[in-house]
Amino acid sequence: MQTLRLMTFFLVSLLALPVAVVAEAKSTEIVVRAKSKDAKFIGTSMGGAMVRIRDAESGEILAQGLTEGSTGNTDLIMKEPHRRHQSIAEGAAAFRTTLDLSEPVFVTVEVLAPYIKKQARVAAQTQVWLVPGKHLNGEGLVVEIPGLVVDVLSPQTHRYTELSDAPFEIRANVVMMCGCPISDGGIWDGSKMEVAALVKKDGHEFATIPLSLTDTNTFVGELKPKSPGVYQVLVYAHDPRTANTGVDRVSFIVK
């Protein structure tokens, strides 16, 4: 009888214990886009933007991948007035993923763009809560990427040339971070940008050479070295209206 009472008490005690409830994981859609400052979205034409979604507490990568798609609708993004809650991302490049979440998670979203242009690549990040089943889709999370992409086309890196061949052309290609074109009087007006080459000879300041817009995306100037040496050329582009800035560097040898 005593044993029966003890067993009954034990069973009742077990039933009284709180039961751990495992929350059911819910699929949660996430869309992340990278938008060039003062321009359009960064997509396939610029190699995409690398997106990494991390658990902010543990650092674990929950998802990662490149944005894919077009730069978006120019009129909608750059010309038409925007209303509150109006999406401007129709058809624009995005990274899309689905996470199975059983509880809210605070995440860090890292964006590196444009991914294939290492000298121009910018790392930007933000943080956001994700709640199971509460999708972050539609326009999604838009991360702004400031800057300009500058590629020095001439002189070529580590080129050996004769002093008698001077003067040398400095030629640079400059585009928005989304790859959008810079032209004279265009939406992205190169005539209002400052582009110049800062030149050093054997590590010492030599000259500052303004570059002029000669064609779409193309800025040109002329370097007149006075003696042989190693010349370092840093070309910067700066838009004073937005503070967007980009840089590229080369060095070459004059014999």
Could you provide a short overview of the structure?
This protein is mostly beta strands.
If you had to describe this structure to a student in words, what would you say it looks like?
By secondary structure, this protein is mainly beta. The chain has two domains: 26-145, Immunoglobulin-like, CATH 2.60.40; 148-254, Immunoglobulin-like, CATH 2.60.40. It contains two helices and 16 strands. Strands 9-16-15-11-12 form a five-stranded mixed β-sheet, with no helix packed on it. It has a four-stranded antiparallel β-sheet with strand order 3-2-5-6, with no helix packed on it. A four-stranded antiparallel β-sheet has the order 8-10-14-13, with no helix packed on it. It is elongated. The termini are far apart. The model has no long low-confidence stretch (mean pLDDT 93).
